[in-house]
Structure formats: C-alpha cells, structure tokens
Amino acid sequence: MKKIREELFNQCKQYVEDCINTAELAIQDARESANDDTKSSAGDKFETGREMMQQEIDRNRKQLEEAKKMKIALEQIENYQASEIVHSGSLVITNFGKFYMSISRGQIQVDGDNYFAISGVSPIGLKLIRQKVGYSFDFNGKTFKIEAIF
C-alpha cells in the first residue's frame, strides 16, 4: 500500500504543478493580449477589451492561489507517517471506496483500481478525518465503514 500511496501522491503533485503552469501561462497570455490591444477610434471597445482581459487575469490569479494552497497541503504530507487515525496523507479503505486524504483532485486510477483524492475539508473528508478502523458514518444515503487505514 505504501507504493500505491506514493503513486497517488505523485499524481496529485503533478496535477498541482499542471494547474500552476496553466494558470501562470493564462495570466501571461491575458497580459500580452491587453498590452497588444491598440486603442482604436472606438474608445469604448478598447476599454471593454482591456476590462475583459483584466477579469481574465483576476480569475486566473485566483486559480493560481488555489493551486499554490494545494501545493502547500501536499508538501505537508510529503513525509507521511502511518497512523491508526485518519489524517492528511492517509489511504482510507471503506466498504464504498478508497480515499486518499490529500487535495481535492477527484478520481485517480492506480494499477486498475480507483481511488479518490479528497481534501480533509471536503464533506466526506470531514467525516473521515481523525477516525479509526471500524468507524461508520452515513453519507449520501449510504453507511460507510472504515475497513483499513494505510
């Protein structure tokens, strides 16, 4: 399970790096577009175009900030130590799925099995965090039971 947890970590790390790179590139492109826009005789058109580019930059900055927060969260679990209690970095096996407590990344496939990378502040993450094997909880009309923690 350690190898699977490491693969999940690496895929989450790559996802975050891709998000950061994409956001930075989009910000750069929007800045260049705004700077390349030349003022025409229709001044309102110029101002509208610049405002749209600024909104694009602001939106991508927010995405960049979120990606950087995810990177920090991953850095905190890089040297994960196994525990009997679910915490960041834990691989949690339940009767309804396998969850990697890390970032909200969604479904990841490793060796043909599906895992869900979730944040500890997600709705199901809040149910799992600080729990032990045998703990049961209701979520979306199903009763989940923690079968193993790695």
Protein model, in words:
This protein has 150 residues and is an alpha+beta fold. It has 2 domains: 76 residues; 59 residues, no CATH class. Helices cover 51% and strands 21% of the residues. The chain is built from 3 helices and 6 strands. A 6-stranded mixed β-sheet has the order 3-4-2-1-6-5. Strand 1 and strand 2 form a beta hairpin. The longest helix has 35 residues. The radius of gyration is 21 Å and the shape is elongated. It starts with a helix and ends with a strand. The model has no long low-confidence stretch (mean pLDDT 90).
Short description:
With 150 residues, this protein is of the alpha+beta class.
* Estimated helix fraction: 40-55%
Strand content: 15-25%
Could you say which structural class the secondary elements and strand pairing correspond to? alpha+beta
Average pLDDT level: 90
Global geometry: elongated
pLDDT < 50 runs, ≥5 residues: none
Biggest β-sheet: count, sense, barrel? 6 strands, mixed
Question: What is the string of helix and strand elements?
Answer: HHEEEEHEE
**Rg from C-alpha positions?**
21 Å
Number of discrete domains: 2
- In total, how many beta strands? 6
Secondary structure tally, helices: 3
Keywords:
alpha+beta; 6-stranded mixed sheet; 3 helices; 150 residues; 2 domains
Topology:
Blueprint: H1 2-36, H2 43-77, E1 91-94, E2 97-101, E3 106-110, E4 113-118, H3 123-128, E5 136-139, E6 142-149
Parallel strand pairs: 2-4
Antiparallel strand pairs: 1-2, 1-6, 3-4, 5-6
Helix pairs in contact: 1-2
